[in-house]
Automatic annotation (TrEMBL):
<feature type="compositionally biased region" description="Acidic residues">
    <location>
        <begin position="60"/>
        <end position="70"/>
    </location>
</feature>
<feature type="region of interest" description="Disordered">
    <location>
        <begin position="42"/>
        <end position="70"/>
    </location>
</feature>
<protein>
    <submittedName>
        <fullName>Uncharacterized protein</fullName>
    </submittedName>
</protein>
<feature type="compositionally biased region" description="Basic and acidic residues">
    <location>
        <begin position="43"/>
        <end position="59"/>
    </location>
</feature>
Length: 70
């Protein structure tokens, strides 16, 4: 199975969120990869949690819809 893009929402300690896309063979693998990117390996501040967004993403589409942090 190939690694496809999955949509996730990153939740920050101050209540902000932003949507991102991450590769994974499954939803669980995508969340684990996003957790590594935004929580365990991020030296610029740690996110609180990662939420999986059950919506389709296109292959190669890496940018959030509006490109902004909310």
């Amino acid at each position: 199975m190939t690694r496809r893009w999955h949509a996730v929402r990153v939740h920050w300690p101050d209540g902000r969120t932003h949507d991102d896309q991450i590769r994974g063979r499954t939803a669980d693998e995508a969340v684990a990869n996003a957790t590594a990117n935004w929580i365990t390996e991020n030296p610029h501040g740690r996110a609180d949690r990662i939420e999986y967004l059950p919506r389709p993403t296109e292959d190669g589409d890496r940018d959030p819809e509006d490109g902004e942090t909310t």
